[in-house]
Write a structure and sequence with these properties.
This protein is mostly beta strands and 87 residues long. The chain contains no helices and 5 strands.
Length: 87
């Protein structure tokens, strides 16, 4: 029986905000964080550069990215799959 290896790499879901670079996309990831004192949920946004080897993604696509070894100075994520294409 073949066992699947469980990866410890983080997987994030976000929206592509830029695809102008060759084989690179910029993905905006939103997370909800609870304020420690007020207990109100705050929306945090962060942008990650991810490797898109086939230039499949366009602006507005919802994608999943996974941690990967450093490919350049700022690119440490790899495109896992496209969840939803933009219209």
């Amino acid at each position: 029986m073949a066992e699947e290896k469980k990866s410890n790499k983080r997987v994030l879901t976000g929206v592509v905000v830029s695809d102008k670079n060759d084989k690179t996309i910029v993905v905006r990831v939103e997370t909800l964080v609870q304020h420690p004192l007020l207990k109100k949920y705050i929306r945090r946004r962060k942008k990650f550069m991810a490797h898109d080897p086939n230039n499949d993604c366009g602006i507005g696509d919802k994608v999943q990215i996974i941690e990967h070894r450093a490919l350049s100075a700022r690119k440490r994520w790899h495109l896992l799959n496209i969840v939803e294409k933009a219209i």
